[in-house]
Amino acid sequence: QSKRGGRNQLSLFDPKMQQSVIKRASIEAELQRALERHELRLHYQVQVDVWRQAIGAEALLRWHHPSMGSVPPSDFIPIAEETGLILPIGHWVLKTACQQIQAWQASPKTAHLVLAVNVSVKQIRQKNFCSSLLGLIERFQIPPSLLKLEITESLLLDDVEETIKTMLELNRVGIRFSMDDFGAGYSSLQYLRRLPLEQLKIDRSFIQDLENSSSDRTIVRTIITMAQSLNIDVIAEGVETEAQRELLQSKGCIHYQGFLFGKPVDIEQFNRLLS
Ligand code: C2E
Ligand code: MG
Ligand code: MG
Ligand code: MG
What we know:
Blueprint: H1 15-34, E1 40-48, E2 54-65, E3 69-71, H2 73-83, H3 86-104, E4 114-118, H4 121-124, H5 129-140, E5 147-152, H6 160-172, E6 176-182, H7 188-194, E7 199-202, H8 204-207, H9 214-229, E8 233-236, H10 242-250, E9 255-257, H11 267-274
Parallel strand pairs: 2-4, 4-5, 5-6, 6-7, 7-8, 8-9
Antiparallel strand pairs: 1-2, 1-9, 2-3
Helix pairs in contact: 1-2, 3-5
Organism: Undibacterium cyanobacteriorum
Protein name: EAL domain-containing protein
Keywords: Phosphoprotein
């Protein structure tokens, strides 16, 4: 044993490392059953305009496991992506989202709300993604313009052509796209030129130090100006303070999402928050 393992292998016996390997393995095994055991839920985080009026919401996946407790998306989404489990899970998210849009149609107070759903590029690349999504829209009889798909630029990297084709096809029927975490990746500007985007979502990392960082203010101002001249809507994510909101507004950003307006909450709380 000591012959094979030199100093490099010491890490194998590092209890912290071992723990995280075990944690990963159990997340993977448990995630397989999460759907059928109804352990997944959607939470909703409000998106507002300058008058603090709700214009829509982002659907955010929550997993409550009976013994592990709530597992954050950052712990299970990457595993879901790697294992392919994101496909059935992502379909469940879209189905639940369409169902919710349908429910909101029943009241004039909520009928205008646009629901933003995070989709993995792995999902979009499925052969039947378009037909399956159009099937849901048909089944729940919802206006396609109330569904917004958030895609993350860092995930786009390869096979962009196919992804663009799918996006255009969905765009033609009225489904809109927002580029999530804008600015955090490497090739944002390329995508801006080539993808049918209705909205950019400025990454939270540019918002959090807005008050103290003049370079962040410059970047944010530049993103907003650029988006405006391209006729693309801008929303800021992770807005936590009124000072941040004011700075954003002064630069022309009029759509916001963040703890300042509401944390992601279950649907009962969300509907209460609206009234
Ligand atoms: P995201 O799409 O960028 O979502 C925004 C994240 O920021 C959410 O974390 C939200 O709870 C958090 N957040 C919102 N406002 C604030 C704020 O004011 N301050 C701070 N500090 N955080 C704020 P969450 O829910 O943990 O989700 C993390 C990521 O997991 C999401 O980032 C998204 O990439 C992914 N995700 C969540 N649900 C889904 C899903 O249904 N499908 C896929 N493919 N990915 C999902
Ligand atoms: Mg998002
Ligand atoms: Mg985001
Ligand atoms: Mg983000």
